Amino acid sequence: MKRLFVGIFGLVLTAFVLSACSGSGGSDSAAGGENDVEIPEGATEVVMWNLFGGGDAEYMQDIVGKFNESQSEYFVNNVMQEHEEYYTKLLTSIGAGKGPDIGIAHTHVLPELVNQGLVTGLDDIASSVGVKWDEFNQNILDATIYEGVHYAVPIDTHAQIMYINNKLVGDAGLLNDDGSVKMEQTPEGYVDFFTTLKDNLPEGKIPFAFSSSGNDPYWLWWGYYTQLGGRGILTEDSLENPKYDIDLDKAVQAANFLKDLYHDKEIIPLNISDFYAEFQSENAATMTSGVWATGIWETTEGLDFTPMPIPNVFGEKGAWASSHTLVLPYYQDANQEVQKGALEFMKFVADNGAMWAQAGHIPAKDSVVESEEFQELPYRNEYAEVASYVNFVDRNIYARGVEEIVVRHLDTVWAGDATAEEAFAAIETEVKKLIGE
To answer: Cα–Cα 20 to 30 A to 10, which of 153, 313, 360, 417?
Structure first.
């Protein structure tokens, strides 16, 4: 595959190497220098770079600790990195031969890593440690396969879902006896549900707490667009040379539907400073966010809530999601024993997905979702089904750039400063310039 952005990448790489921390490069040097840990005698160190924060970081460290305690052959050194700088540092450090032995990668960044030759195909090593690909959810697994090669071990999918405050929704007469919401799964039924909430909530309460800018409304738009039958923004059959291929009518319809929730229907208040706080303080009847919020709500004293998939308003099942995956950086002089240890750990993480699910994420392996350990976790079964129909963003090297463009222009729609048609005309111009079409 050809390498793109060589000039820019080279400049960033040069700047980074001057200040880079020492790394293993998959060899015998220690990338863990920034983590002062003691490696058990006789164990092979495997350095993992970790972008997680908050509860996610704690759950991942628990998994790392359990792996290290479970055997003595390998020791995973879990090195925390700054989230905002993580991908810049990961891409440049691997290219310089100074990266980790294991990296975390979201599925929308994986195409860049694959295209630039920065990650290793896993099939041979994975087979040697007993990874069974048929145990994974196929929808999640497909997002990690390029030209028939597995380039990552997915450990979850984290989808956008909906949360309801059972007391506020119940007091408004919108809960069935089994605790499900009384909502007709149509655009009209969806709006009627929130209009009824708005009319029946106590004064000052919010029917739908949500952001009016940034990723959250973009993700919800993506879910509606998917439910209308839209699949992506660019063609999905080309990693390096996609074409602009949005279904404009569906994209506009989805945007206008969400815009009306802000403006015409006045269901979502504009410019809420902290919509998480509104739900956590029981001031909002519903909110929409990623599954990671489950771990927050269940540790909030007195909060009676239920998570549920985004209602399938337009007929087809669909929701936005991404996945955390574990990748094996490519190094010319890779230490095969370190690589084997890396895959042993990846398998361990996937097999122990119920531990990771405590953060709210849906495990990538169907066998884990079906396990007693996962089934005993509260709330997760309410939305685990979405893993089989979430729509991952387009699988090409422009995914991050396209997302920035779309989010920026859709923000003008939610703010009421542009029509959906105007926004998508601007999006088309900028995206085509980005991809060189």
So the answer is: 153
Token readout for 358 is 């405590």
Q: 6-155+323-364: what fold? A: D-Maltodextrin-Binding Protein; domain 2 (3.40.190)
pTM score: 0.90
Given this structure, which CATH class describes domain 161-320+396-435?
alpha beta
Mean pLDDT along residues 283-311: 96
Distance, in Å, from the CA atom of 102 to the CA atom of 105, rounded to the nearest integer, reads 10
Taking only the tens place, the pLDDT of each residue in 90-115 is 999 999 999 999 999 999 999 999 99
Output the pLDDT for position 53: 87
Helix axes 399-414, 248-262, angle to 10 degrees: 50
Mean pLDDT for the stretch of residues 344-361: 97
Q: What Cα–Cα distance (Å) separates residue 13 from each residue in 90, 202, 257, 398, 408? A: 11, 56, 43, 19, 28
Q: Is residue 237 classed exposed, middle or buried when 0-12, 13-18 and 19+ CB atoms within 10 A define those classes?
A: exposed
* DSSP H or E stretch at residue 366: helix 366-369
**pLDDT interval class at 55 (50, 70, 90):** confident
Which residues belong to CATH 3.40.190.10 in the chain?
6-155+323-364, 161-320+396-435
Question: What is the rounded CA–CA span in Å between residue 104 and residue 356?
Answer: 14
